[in-house]
Amino acid sequence: MNGPHPSADVLRAVLEGTGTPAEREAVMTHLDEGCPECEERVAATFDDDTLARLLSAEAAGPVAAPALRRVPTRRVLWAAVPLLAAASVLLVLWPGEPDTRPKDTPSAPIVSATFRAGSHQGNDILLERDLRDGATIRDTEVLAVAMETSVPAARVAFVVTADGRRVPFWPPSPGEVPVEEPQPGELGAYDLAGESGTLTFVAAASPVPVTPQALADRWPGDSSVGWTSITLTVTR
Asked: Can you give the pTM of this predicted structure?
């Protein structure tokens, strides 16, 4: 095994899918090389039901924590095999941190999202390619997001602009978003005309009704909400 152990903050960020590309690469390389201590920390970060749900979600498709999808199967299954019959509840904790939330507190949904670039074709939008974190997109294009959740949730999409503003673009209405059953499909689109620089697009899901702006303002520190995001460079 080479390299130092990742800090608790970096390890947690990577496991939750919010770490930088460099952090994700460093953590995954470290785990791939074999580090029993950090494997123990991975297992301790997620409770039993969470590990079972993450494996179940992975079997059905991508999940919100891309880092966990890259952890070698042999390093996850040993912690999760006894848990496959556990109830589907998501609870993310710091290692050793007691759960002080009320027992009836809704769990954070697991969010899966695909971000695509497209162009206007009359009144329609023609989706042309999938986007990965760090990609470049032109200001003449449109960013579309398709989102699914593991449980019923209020779904919102928003953009974090180059100057730090959080601007919801789906739903288009600022009113409270109800909790709805999971459903696939295009969630919303954002016209990039006039934008430039680095923008972060976020697909978010709340287990309780919420307004789009209120949910956007809670990103990224609220662990009761499910998030997944992509950072893009907009060029002219």
From this structure: 0.56
For the stretch 9-56, pLDDT in tens is: 787 777 666 778 788 778 777 777 777 777 777 766 655 555 445 444
Per-residue model confidence as pLDDT tens digits over 151-170: 999 999 999 998 899 999 99
Residue type, 236: R
Q: Is 197 left (phi over 0), alpha (psi -120 to 50) or beta?
A: left
Give the residues of the chain that fall short of pLDDT 70.
1-3, 15-17, 43-106, 184-187
Spatial neighbors of 163 by CB under 8 A, at least 6 apart, are: none
Burial environment of residue 58 by CB neighbours within 10 A (0 to 12, 13 to 18, 19 or more): middle
DSSP string, 66-82: HHHHHS-HHHHHHHHGG
CA–CA separation, 150 vs 12, rounded Å?
21
Residue with tokens 């928003």: 158
Task: Delineate the domains of the chain, giving CATH numbers in brackets.
Answer: 8-83 (no CATH), 111-235 (2.60.40)
The secondary element (H helix, E strand) that includes residue 154 is: strand 154-160
Radius of gyration in angstroms for the set of CA atoms belonging to the chain, rounded to a whole number: 18
Structure tokens at 156: 């919102």
